[in-house]
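Problem 12. The chain below contains 157 residues. Write out its predicted structure in token notation.
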Amino acid sequence: MDHIDNKILSILHGNARITISEMSRLIVMSQPAVTERLRKLEEQGVITGYRAVLAPSKLGKYTTAFVLFKSNNCREFEAYAESASEIVDFYRTSGEYNYLLKVVTATSESLETFLETCNTFGHSSTLVVLSTRFEDKSLVSSQDASNTIPRINPPGI
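Solution.
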């Protein structure tokens, strides 16, 4: 990967809906050259997908928490976690706790209900999010991708 690939990645991280023509104009490369680089980044597994960023509050989800979870039956808990709509991120961790979960619920009461259900699988420690300074920060440093367009966030985020 070179600085042009980093620019492409930075631009896509900021706005995955940008057109090839706009991206090629920003990078000062031909559209076929940009298209080929994108294809290679996808084939190499550097780009794994494109997605919309959703605003939880617009979907009636106002409570976010991180839950450290210690389970004695990991397979059973993992099966439960896959089916639990409240869990949006799920990590296997080392240390005292087996898992780190990012949980999004409508209210603190629905978070409490979710945690009570989880307690049948083990023990948890919960951190409720008060506010978010940033999330989903780009993996491409600003030095690697200078002169790129700023990230476009949907209204309300």
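Discussion. The mean pLDDT is 92. Students who got a different answer should revisit the alignment rule from Section 12.3.
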